[in-house]
Amino acid sequence: MYPVLFRLGSFEITSFGAMVAIGAALGILLLRRELVRSGVDGAKGVDAALVGVLGGLAGAKLLYVVEHWAEPFSDTLLSRGGMSWFGGLTGGILAGVVMVLRQRLPLMAVLSAAAPALTLGQAIGRIGCFLVGDDYGRATTLPWGVAFPEGLPPTLETVHPTQLYESVSLFVMTVVLVALRRRGAANHVVFGWYLVAAGTLRFLIELVRVNEVVFLGLTTAQLFSAAIIAVGVWLLVRRSSEPRLARSRKSKA
Q1: Of 226, 229, 222, 224, whose CA–CA distance to 207 is shortest?
Q2: β-strand 146-148 against 11-14: which pairing, if any?
C-alpha cells in the first residue's frame, strides 16, 4: 500500500487523490472524443463533465459522512479515502445533467458518450482506493487476499481486494461500451447497458463486502444498485425514435 505519495510540508499528496485526478482527466478526454464523434459540442460537454466531477466528489464524500454519522465528523470528512460509490454516481450525474440542460445539449447523447468515460474514471479511481486500503472486502483465504495494515480501517487479515475486482470489471465495461457506440447502438441502449452493468457489478461486489444490512437482507448499496438496474432495463426495453449512432469508419471497413 502507498497511501501517501509525497508531502509538501504538512500537505499530503495521497495516492487516492492522484488516481482520482488521473481518472477524471482521462475520463474527460474520452468523453470529449465520444461527444465529437456523436456531433455534440465537445467544449460544452467537457464543461458539463467538470461540473459532474465536482458534483460526484461532493456527493461521494457527503454521503460517506452521513453513512458514518456516529464517527467523529473530522475523521470522516478529512479522511484520505472515504467515498460513497452511489453518492458519487448520483451527485455526478445530477450535477452533469443540470449543466447539460442549461447548455441545451442533447441529454441522452451526452449520457451515452459519458458512459464509457464514467467507467474508465471509476476504474482508475478504484486503484486509488486499493492503494490507500479503503473499501476492501471480507476476510478470505484465497491466494490473492491482501492485508491492509494502514487501511481505512486497518486490518492484518487477508481480505478480498474488492477495489481491484471492480477496477478490472470497469475496464472491461469501458471497452464494451466504446464498442457498442462504434457499432452504432442507440444512445439510450448504451446508457441503459451502462446502468445495468454498473448496478449488477456493485450488487455482486457487496456480497463480499462488510456493510450493514438495512432492508430485505440487502445493503444500502445493493438497494441503490437494484434501482439503477431497473432504470437501465427500462431504457433498454423502451421504444425510442432517436437515430442510431453513426458507425465508425473502422467498423465500415
Answers
A1: 222
A2: unpaired
Q: What is the 3-state secondary structure (H, E, C) of the chain?
A: CCCEEEEECCEEEEHHHHHHHHHHHHHHHHHHHHHHHCCCCHHHHHHHHHHHHHHHHHHHHHHHHHHCCCCCHHHHHCCCCCCCHHHHHHHHHHHHHHHHHHCCCCHHHHHHHHHHHHHHHHHHHHHHHHHHCECCECECCCCCCEEECCCECCEEEEECCHHHHHHHHHHHHHHHHHHHHHCCCEHHHHHHHHHHHHHHHHHHHHHHECCCEEECCEEHHHHHHHHHHHHHHHHHHCCCCCCECCCCHHHHC
Strand partners, 244: 186
Rounded to a whole number, what is the largest CA-CA distance in the chain? 60
What are 233's three cell numbers? 432495463
Nine-digit cell at 85?
460509490
pLDDT tens-digit series, residues 68-106: 555 655 555 555 555 666 677 777 778 888 888 888 889
Query: What is the reported pTM?
Result: 0.81
pLDDT digits (tens, 9 = 90+) for 11-68: 777 788 888 889 989 998 999 899 988 888 777 777 877 887 787 777 776 766 666 5
